[in-house]
Amino acid sequence: MVIHLTLLVALLSATLAGATPLPAGGGFVLDGFPRTLPQAETLARGLHERGQQLDAVLDFRMGDEQIVRRIVGRRVCTQCGATYNVKFSRPRVAGVCDSCGGTLSQRVDDREDVIVTRLETYRSQTAPLVEYYSQQGLLHVVDASADPDTVAAEVARIVASLDRSA
């Protein structure tokens, strides 16, 4: 499904407007949006109109080979949605969910050819956002190739460092 940028930003804006007011120092996370420079610019205008702005943008970096290896190995339970990896986070019994006993399957978009195409799309459409947000002083780079606890600690450190008094 393709959603026009104007509609997407309008939906996001309406969601933020209708949301329960955030506690002092609270915020929100956008995961996977924006993906293109026009989306980022439209988001900035929409937030500005609401008297809001982005505090930070996290750029999770990892080499292509590791990205492919992690995603190709991902398996998802068809019943409860639990996620495993055939190399890094295996279920006790191959192909069976530890949580509910459901069947584990590979998502259609987790095939290597699809991932390679997604990485090419990232480089052409999303990578320009790195410079865009860097110029605004919002970009924080996170080494996503580290172990999950290290990545989580780095994200927590970045979030804790944000000045939300403005």
What does this structure look like?
The protein is α+β, with helices and mostly antiparallel strands. It is 44% helix and 11% strand. It contains 6 helices and 5 strands. It has a 3-stranded antiparallel beta sheet with strand order 3-2-4. Strands 1-5 form a two-stranded parallel sheet. Helix 3 crosses helix 4. It is globular. The N and C termini lie far apart (37 Å). The mean pLDDT is 87.
Distance between the termini: 37 Å
Q: Tell me about the largest β-sheet.
A: 3 strands, antiparallel
Percent strand? 5-15%
Q: Work out the oligomeric state of the chains in this entry.
A: single chain
Order of helices and strands: HHEHEEEHHEH
Radius of gyration over all CA atoms, rounded: 18 Å
Structural class: alpha+beta
Mean pLDDT: 87
Describe the strand arrangement of the main beta sheet, using strand numbers: 3-2-4
Count all strands and give the number: 5
Overall geometric form: globular
Helix content: 40-55%
